[in-house]
What does this fold into?
Amino acid sequence: MDPVLYLSFVLMVCGTTMAASPKRAVDVPFGRNYVPTWAFDHIKYLNGGSEIQLSLDNYTGTGFQSKGSYLFGHFSMRIKMVAGDSAGTVTAYYLSSQGAEHDEIDFEFLGNRTGEPYILQTNVFTGGGGNREQRIYLWFDPAGAFHTYSLLWNSYMIAFFVDDIPIRVFKNNNALGVKYPFNQPMKLYSSLWNADDWATRGGLEKTNWDKAPFVASYQGFDIDGCQASVRAKSCATQGKHWWDQKEYRDLDRFQYRRLRSVRSKYTIYNYCTDKARYPVVPKECKRNRDM
It folds into this structure.
């Protein structure tokens, strides 16, 4: 990215307090809140568990999940993506419930050939239905350093943040007949896996296994959500938690300005504007701020 454009973007997105900006996470070791889920030998622990690395080779990828299930809260992770030729790989960080009619909130980082930018895909599943993909280029190299990827989820909205900059909002439009995730507790998951049948240029670019192992690094394993493994109803009580307070129920006008800037500069796909897939605009897309 041109250095002048990058500086202008940074100046635009910084300098103003964001009303719905989430609280800062506290560093805790991986094992306090998370456990490996598969291919344990492909997870490396560093600095007493304050950092981990996931690796992918032509044998397997790997992943982890939270110990508890949560209903609303703020969830974040600092991640450094696979460097170099990452085509065909996907680094995923997401919330998901269980069952055929599951809810899910996704960050998916789609690798690319060396020198080509990563693509960040977000998606929201409600009641088992997804197909709400949005894709953006990031304004930095996500493999060059750790960056923070966060989800703020309450009964009013789901907000996606990259380094505290909002990149997407999915509102509770239940009144319009749009399902919203509000009663199924979700676990947090992350994984590094091979998806060269679709991830890079629709599957045209295949994973170069000569570059394996591919490594993604993680820090920041705090979780600030309502654990609902046993008592989901207590988590749904509005006003009980900080993320339910008025200032977190919507973005403010400065955040919407940043969101519009991200969309205008970096969006490469938005299901809301895909007339081939959706000749009738989805109900949740009819309000401009919710696109």
